[in-house]
Design a protein that fits this description.
The protein is of the alpha+beta class and about 90 residues long. It has one domain. Helix content is about 25%, strand content about 25%. A hairpin with a 3-residue loop joins strand 3 and strand 4. It starts with a helix and ends with a helix.
Length: about 90
Amino acid sequence: MESLALASHARRSAKTITRITGEAVDSLDLEGYEPVPEVRGMTDPWWRGKDSLIALDRGLAVGMDAPGCLEAHVYSGLDEWGLQGG
């Protein structure tokens, strides 16, 4: 549930949203990002950077052994409110 709430918040706050799929997800550079503890999960972790949030979605890829289903959303251009909420 927390992941859905964060996605909704990030969508409203981001200046840019980039969708990445398939093998390209594994090439995301998460250096300088920290895990978001409230939405820590094995298949759907979130990462917080200086002005962006990254949501990784590995559920279908792992559950169905379908690497093509890997997906990530990068929410960029966030201010402090967009990164942290209230």
